[in-house]
Amino acid sequence: MENYGFLLLTSHLGNPERKPLTPAQLRTLSQRVLSHGAFEPGELTEKELHTLGCGNALSSQILGLLADTELLERYLQKAKIRKCIPIQRTDARYPVSVRKKLGLDSPGCLWAKGDLSLLDKPKISVVGSRKPKPESRTFAYEAGRQAARQGFVLVSGNAAGADQAAQQGCLDAGGQVISVVPDALHSYLKTQNVLYLSEEDYDAPFSSQRALRRNRVIHTLGQLVLAVQSRAGIGGTWSGTAQNLQSRWTPVCVFHDGSEGEAALRGLGAEAVGVEALRNLSALCLREPDLFEI
After folding, report:
1. Mind giving me the DSSP string for 51-98?
2. For the residues of 262-279, what is the DSSP string, one character each?
3. How confident is the model over 131-179, as pLDDT tens digits?
4. How far, in Å, CA of 290 to CA of 35, rounded?
5. In a 10 Å sphere around its CB, with 0-12 CB exposed, 13-18 middle and 19+ buried, how is residue 227 labelled?
6. Closest of 193, 196, 192 to residue 218, by C-alpha
7. pTM greater than 0.70
């Protein structure tokens, strides 16, 4: 069987009692593997794990996870039937921007359902409130429409409100959408011009933790992030966008609605724009974060 080390280490494989590595544990293990430069996650032995500084308990956990090949095979067979495809961090199909921007914090495995070629195309991301004001909804819809007209794939989280308005605008204009979902990937019907992505197991149910965690994938997939409407200091749109701005992953433009949320995001480095600015998304994408700015 193909080396599915990252999947074995990070997935429940359909068994809720299975205890995969936490993101922090995976990051530490990856750091140690890279520093030694000799091992792949699926080829580790007890001796090598001890060499990497893993104690007996963690070494046993890792080896136990890597030994679950029969469970993995059954899980992959079910995934194939449901048209869900795993993309490990070492896979050539893994989004380069996610791996580059997040580094060892990038998900060990992404699950996909739909046209994988969308991952190779220019993309912009839209985030925003589930209850946008009419003018914010109009901005989101126009962002999606302009993305389609200008040759960008639209990335969103498929949530009610701004996300779905942007998606609808893009699809109405004949465009393509990548939807990073926080619930069971396999439950989505395969749809023309849409690629569904999930950061965790393809059959994992919705949780607020998953909804928040997927923000970093949405923010790092695009060449530009458009924040449609956000409260100041609270909510998923705020937390994901603030983390992006503080980490300097991707340029952020916030809809100029005169709100406290807009002002707070501008204070973190976002640029305020109106609907007219959407006519040239490529120009907005050129506003790269200054990594040396204090």
Report:
1. HTT--HHHHHHHHHHHT-HHHHHHHHHHHHHTT-EEEETTSTTS-HHH
2. HHHHHHTT-EEE-GGGGG
3. 999 999 999 999 999 999 999 999 999 999 999 999 999 999 999 999 9
4. 28
5. buried
6. 196
7. yes
